[in-house]
Amino acid sequence: MGCAAHARDSITPMHGVNSSLRPFGATIFAEMTRLALAHNAVNLGQGAPDFDGPEFVKEAAIRAIKDGRGQYARMTGIPELNAAIAERFEKTTGISIVAETQTVVTCGCTEAIVDAMLGLLERGDEVILFEPYYDSYPAAIAMAGGVAKVVTLHAPAFRIDEEALRSAITPKTKMILVNTPHNPSGHMLDAQERRLLAEVANEHDLIVLSDEVYEELFFARPHVSLALEEGLRERTIVLSSLGKSFSFTGWKVGWAIGPAALVAAVRAAHQFTTFCAPTPLQVAAAAALRAPDAYFTEFRADYQRKRDLLANGLRSSGLEPIIPEGSYFILADHSKFEFDDDFAFCRFLVEKVGVAAIPPGAFYANKSHARTLARFAFCKRDETLHAAIERMHHLNEKSAQARSPVKSAVERR
Ligand code: GLN
């Protein structure tokens, strides 16, 4: 009794959290969503659509549930989904793979990232991590006992600097983690960057983990999988998921594709992390991946329109959007409004303007690089985007008030 009371007293928010995870605290997505709700803000923060995915995919899931597909799936994925993943990959890349040994289905791409780290890294192995990075990457590396070596991609181009990449490589480097199209910048690796990655990976015998979840969201030019680069196919694991391409981020169906030996390592961890992804959703994912070409074309056109709508809105509010080549995010520069940093600006935006964005400092080890930026998601209904833009038209006057509240109160009289 006394002991239990003592244990309760000593519990702090991070009490008992494993030391490798303690530095990461709570994710910025949970925090900004909480603030958006508290301030009744239009939420352009977390990258989650506020509309539903296609009806035919939902129908397939419902049918699977009604048909009694309620038990564990095969550990590596239900055969029809592994086959559909291989078919879609062949269709988009021209690379033919053996579904049974070269694919594995996971609970979202986030699980596949953790599984790849757990399955491939030895304690102390180094992973090249480009910042800004999706916030789960460094945590996944840490959970596996790896060490992240951060290489900065600089705004506004966010291209890989050869010198910076080469100088981050050491004898302990095991893997390079890349994301194209890139969250949060929307940059897509170009031919020169893909060549550089192939050269460096081959020179140092590195594995490449390529997160391509935004593969269907490209605007300027088609997405090119890293697996297509000569010299990379044999050493690259490509990750993707249903969430972004079919607007079902909550279904958590993702997958890894790669050489059988690398996929075997991902499977080795997957069997003990989640064992399998939800069966009926895998059935529906197989149906989704076999969608007609028109689905993907319309999906992209719709997103390009949303991107332009938001970019124009941001610009007319006085922000400077960096137009993304892909993904459903826009980084915008807010220097004109003279806030101390990205966190101060995003806090002001959600509290005083009523629009939630993500402070990109959450995606940097060197947070000062993010100081003048904010990330806005455009995976939202047109009316949501219009509502956010409408509110942001008052950005100028509200930021003047926020900077000098006394003066503006006097001016109002
Ligand atoms: N990938 C989404 C984003 O970047 C969010 C995922 C999450 O909330 N964990 O906004």
3D architecture notes:
The chain has 413 residues and is an alpha/beta fold. It folds into two domains: 20-52 and 294-397, Aspartate Aminotransferase, domain 1; 55-290, 3-Layer(aba) Sandwich (Aspartate Aminotransferase, domain 2), CATH 3.40.640. 45% of the residues lie in helices and 13% in strands. It is built from 17 helices and twelve strands. The protein has helices at residues 2-9, 28-38, 55-66, 79-93, 99-102, 108-120, 136-143, 162-168, 191-203, 242-245, 260-273, 279-289, 293-316, 342-353, 382-392, 395-403, 405-412; strands at 42-43, 103-106, 126-131, 147-152, 173-179, 207-211, 236-241, 254-257, 320-322, 329-333, 355-356, 373-377. The strands form three sheets. Strands 2-8-7-6-5-3-4 form a seven-stranded mixed sheet, sandwiched between helices. A three-stranded antiparallel sheet has the order 9-10-12. It has a two-stranded parallel ribbon with strand order 1-11. Helix 7 (136-143) links the parallel strand 3 (126-131) and strand 4. Helix 4 (79-93) packs parallel to helix 12. The radius of gyration is 22 Å and the shape is globular. The structure holds glutamine. Glutamine binds at residues 27, 29, 46-47, 183.
